[in-house]
Design goal:
Helix content is 43%, strand content 16%. It has eight helices and nine strands. The protein is globular. The model has no long low-confidence stretch (mean pLDDT 98). The chain binds NADPH dihydro-nicotinamide-adenine-dinucleotide phosphate (NDP) and 2-hydroxyethylsulfonic acid.
C-alpha cells in the first residue's frame, strides 16, 4: 500500500522540498500551510510529475481548533499517516532580549512549540491505531546553541529538542519512531520572515558563502524516514561546510 507523509509548512523552503522528495519516492502526501494558493500550485506540480495523490489542508498551526477541524476533515483513506514532518516554524525578529517585541515572541512560541504540539496531538492517535509511524521534528542549530539576539527563537528550538526526546520515550511502546533534524543556515524564506519582509537584510544573510539548500534538508529527512524498521536516527545536525557553529561562518 502506498505510504502517506504529512508535511507541515509545505508552502515554501524545507517543507516544499520535502514534499517533492517524498513524492519522488512514491509517497502520497498531505501538505499543509496557510497560503492555500501555494499549496494548490505545489499539489498540481507534484501530481503532474509523480504518480501520487496529494491532499492540501489549509490551517494555522497556532490555532488548535483549526488544526483539529482540518485533521477531522480527512477521509478515512488518509488516516494511515506513516510519516509526520513537523516543519512549520519561523523566527520573528533578531533583537536583544531587552528590546524584544512581545508579539514576535508569541508568534514564535505559538508556532514552533504549540503548533508542533497541536499537530502531533492530532496525528499521534492515528499512528497508535496503526501501531507504527515516524515523527520528524525540524529543530535547528538554535536548538543546540544560544546565540546573540536569538533568545526566544533559540528557546523555542530548545523546546523542540526536549519534546523530541520526551516524545521518543513516551511513544516507544507504541512503535512510533521520533527523530529530529537540526539545520544550520538554509537559504529559504526564513530570513525574510525573521526580518519582517526586509528583502535586502534577508539576502545579506546568505552572501559570501554557500548556505544549505532546502533540498539538502529534504534529502536528509527522506534518509531518516527510509531506514529499516529496526533503525531510528535520533538526531541529525547538518551545517553548510563553511559554518562551524551558530555564529562561526567562513564568509568570503
Ligand atoms: P520558510 O519560511 O521558507 O517556510 C516556513 C513554512 O512554515 C512555510 O511553509 C509557512 O507556511 C509555514 N508556517 C509558518 N507559520 C505557520 C503557521 N502559523 N501555520 C502554518 N504554517 C506556518 O522557512 P524554512 O523552510 O527555512 O523553515 C522550515 C523550518 O525549518 C522551520 O521550523 C525553521 O525554524 C526551521 N529551520 C530553518 C533554518 C533556515 O536557516 N532556513 C535552519 C534551521 C531550522 P505559510 O506561511 O503558508 O503558513
Ligand atoms: C535557523 C538557523 O542560525 O538562524 O534555525 O538560527 S539560525
Amino acid at each position: 500500500m502506498t505510504k502517506i507523509a504529512l508535511i507541515t509548512g509545505a508552502t515554501s523552503g524545507i517543507g516544499e522540498a520535502t514534499a517533492i522528495e517524498f513524492a519522488k519516492h512514491n509517497y502520497n502526501l498531505i501538505i499543509t500551510g496557510r497560503r492555500s494558493g501555494r499549496l494548490i500550485e505545489l499539489a498540481k506540480n507534484i501530481t503532474e510529475e509523480y504518480d501520487v495523490k496529494v491532499k492540501t489542508l489549509v490551517f494555522d498551526v497556532r490555532i488548535k481548533t483549526s488544526v483539529d477541524e482540518a485533521m477531522d476533515s480527512l477521509e478515512a483513506r488518509w488516516n494511515k499517516i506513516d510519516v509526520l514532518v513537523n516543519n512549520a516554524g519561523l523566527a520573528s525578529g533578531l533583537d536583544p532580549i531587552q528590546n524584544g517585541d512581545v508579539a514576535d515572541w508569541e508568534k514564535m512560541i505559538d508556532t514552533n512549540v504549540k503548533g508542533l504540539l497541536y499537530v502531533s496531538k492530532s496525528v499521534i492517535p492515528l499512528m497508535i491505531a496503526n501501531k507504527k509511524g515516524h515523527i520528524v521534528n525540524i529543530s535547528s542549530i538554535a536548538g543546540k546553541e544560544a546565540y546573540a539576539n536569538g533568545n526566544v527563537y533559540c528557546a523555542t528550538k530548545h523546546a523542540v529538542e526536549a519534546l523530541t526526546k520526551s516524545m521518543r520515550i513516551d511513544l516507544l511502546k507504541e512503535g512510533i519512531k521520533v527523530s529530529s533534524v537540526s539545520p544550520g543556515m538554509v537559504d529559504t524564506e526564513f530570513s525574510q520572515v525573521r526580518f519582517h519582509g526586509d528583502a535586502k537584510r534577508a539576502e545579506d544573510v546568505y552572501k559570501g558563502f554557500e548556505p544549505l539548500h532546502a533540498v539538502d534538508i529534504a534529502e536528509t529527512i527522506w534518509f531518516i524516514a527510509s531506514r529499516p524498521a529496526h533503525v531510528n536516527i535520533n538526531d541529525v545536525l547538518i551545517m553548510p561546510t563553511v559554518q562551524a557553529s551558530a555564529v562561526y561562518v567562513n564568509k568570503d
